Amino acid sequence: MAFSDATSSLALWLHLRRRSAFGGKAAAPEPPPGEGPLIVVHLSERADDPLPVAPLIRAILARRPGMRFAFTGALPEGDEMPAELRAVHPPLPREPAAVRELIDSLAPRALLLMGDQLPSALIAGVSDRGLPIILSEARLSAYRRGGSWRGAINRGLMRRITHVLAPDLTAGAAARQLGAIAERVELTGPVTETHPPLHANEAERRALAQIMTGRHIWLAAAPTLPEARAALVAHEAALHYNHRALLILADLAPSIMPAIRAEAEALGLATVLRSEDQDPTPDDHVLIADEADEMGLWYRLAPVSFMGGTLLAGDGAAPRHPFEPAALGSAIIHGLLTETHSAEWTQLDGANAARMVTDAAGLARAVADLTAADQAAILAGNAWAVSTGGAAVLRRIADTVINAMENSA
């Protein structure tokens, strides 16, 4: 059953009228200090993980310093927000009178909705004042009830949203199915935090690259003890078809170092320690990089990186961010344990920018496959595009918010 715009408007009007009947006296929120324009940012209270609002706020402030904000819904992560942020956190107004009080007090210029929540009173009240409404980072899967009376209300809300910035094709289709005007839906990609490439000593990189010329190098970054053992076994297999291959084990928890060295010795793998100021010789099979803060060096030197903490649980350091190797041109292998940095892993896998394995045997096969430079280069190129694309998405959303705000003035 499809609802007309007139039916949807009526359903929304009746819904808000019922809200008004149960509403009390609304307290007017105090605006934050300053003279800059203000926007209301609603953060979904349904999100399982914190929404990536901090990088977006930084992008908005980079273009329009002095902007002020009022956050409703979920609270943003305070320790990640810009130090110069001027903001207030009023309660979400859930009935029309409270929305009118908020608008009269704060005089916002736009409403930005982030996440899978459509606050009906807030959307309707802002729209009634002729202010733009931008929806981003919303997949709206919980709202797919087009044939119900609630579906008519949701359609009425979606018709009032002036810009829908969809993180992916599925999200864009869901927004249109829910009632968004097709011409207002734009595919931007998801908001992701961008990470500057990790630092490395360039002189050291050049010297090691010269020493390692012609060798197939791969890295196991922050592996657990079971993963380190699996990496050593995979490397032993790799040596049968590439006798000059070199495995770098980096960011190891000190507690597992003795066991790793014992395992390497048992497998007959010649091992060198970075902390002993020894460079790997052609006869060495494994470099244990036990010096801190050199991950940027190893990502640059290794065309392939296995990201520890994703395949086999156990003792080890915390999993590292997958955009670290992606930003430095290293092809990525990972396992199924992607709860840490889950959004980033989803993006990489969806873009054919990482090789997923399910067990130790799969790790060995992936290492063998990615000795082919062309296959590693394809993965690495795709990963680089994903890891750097977040900045463009942030700029696009920030531009949309600011342009909508300025054009409505």
Computed Rg: 26 Å
- Which segments are poorly predicted (pLDDT under 50) over 5 or more consecutive residues? none
N/C terminus separation: 38 Å
Described by the principal axes of the CA atoms, the overall outline is: elongated
The helix/strand class is alpha/beta
Helix content: 40-55%
The count of helical stretches stands at 14
The share of residues in extended strands comes to: 5-15%
* Largest sheet, spatial ordering of strands: 3-2-1-4-5-6-7
Q: Strand tally, please?
A: 14
Average pLDDT value?
Answer: 88
Biggest sheet character: 7 strands, parallel
Topology pattern, helix = H, strand = E: HEHEEHEHEHEHEHEHEHEEHEHEHEHH
Can you describe what's shown?
- This protein is an alpha/beta fold.
- Helices cover 42% and strands 14% of the residues.
- The chain has helices spanning 5-21, 53-63, 96-106, 120-128, 149-158, 169-178, 202-211, 225-241, 257-266, 295-301, 323-327, 342-350, 360-369, 373-407, and strands spanning 38-43, 68-73, 87-88, 110-114, 133-136, 163-166, 185-187, 217-221, 246-250, 271-273, 286-289, 304-307, 331-334, 355-356.
- The strands form 2 sheets. A 7-stranded parallel beta sheet has the order 3-2-1-4-5-6-7, with helices on both faces. Strands 10-11-9-8-12-13-14 form a 7-stranded parallel beta sheet, sandwiched between helices.
- α2 (53-63) packs across α14, α8 packs parallel to α9 and α8 (225-241) crosses α13 (360-369).
